[in-house]
Amino acid sequence: MYIDPGPDKALNQRGGTLMVVRKANASVELTFADVVGRASGGYKTVGQMAYDIIRECIITGVLAPGEHLRQEELAERIGVSRIPIRTALMQLESEGLVSFHPHKGAVVRTLTVEQVREIYELRVLLETYALRKSIARMTSARAARLRELGTALDEPHISASLVDERVAFYRELYDAGENPTTVEIIEDLRNSVGRYLLGLRVDHGAGGHRELARLASRGDADTAAAHLRDHLEHVSRRIIEVLSSEEAEADPVTPKRRRKKPAPA
């Protein structure tokens, strides 16, 4: 049975999985109950629903990096048995969003500074490629939509309320290039670091997303690609600064003890 999601929800098909996408007028911070409430319809199986709820909670930071994912608790909060929860967690492990540890169970995967750096280096390569392909096929209607989305994103702090808008912006930016495999890889990379963006203060410089949309709309591929590269590298540096600080606090360097001089004989 297919349940209509209602007027306040939209459904997006990706890889055979339905993903609830909040419409652009939503502007509140998310809670676990919010995500469950939004995903209450539009699913053929409870397993699909459980996967999407947990995945969205991880991507939006409702479930924080390193947080324990207790199957009994998740099953109770979502309203399903443990079996679909276990299946969902295993699928999320294959996507790099969840880790399983002996005697500890599942946790939201954490990233190291080196992993963040590598992810953003890949993003620069893939996203500048996708951008150039998309600009070559950009229509006036897509350009107008891109400019509209870009204007709404240029806030100094990245918040959970704008996660769906960011997804919509980059899909609009890259989908015209008709490279679905590349776009899917880009989305997976973005999702793997998305939770580290929440609350991050970002200097958008000369317009940020708005300027990127303007450059793409007028067909300036070289300048747009350079702008995108600068933006991604800036965000990467900010995440690394925060992670480096957290790692230093979690593992402070213990000062070496001075060796005592032997007492005179």
Automatic annotation (TrEMBL):
Give the HTH gntR-type domain ranges. 44-111
List all Basic residues biased stretches: 255-265
Give a yes or no for keyword DNA-binding in this entry. yes
Superkingdom is Bacteria
Molecular function in Gene Ontology: DNA binding; DNA-binding transcription factor activity
- Where are the residues of the annotated region Disordered? 246-265
What are the alphabetically sorted keywords of the record? DNA-binding, Transcription, Transcription regulation
Show the InterPro entries listed in the entry: GntR_C (IPR011711), TF_FadR/GntR_C (IPR008920), Tscrpt_reg_HTH_GntR (IPR000524), WH-like_DNA-bd_sf (IPR036388), WH_DNA-bd_sf (IPR036390)
Its recorded name reads GntR family transcriptional regulator
- Native species: Sinosporangium siamense
Q: What is the lineage of its organism?
A: Bacteria, Bacillati, Actinomycetota, Actinomycetes, Streptosporangiales
Gene name of the encoded protein: hypR
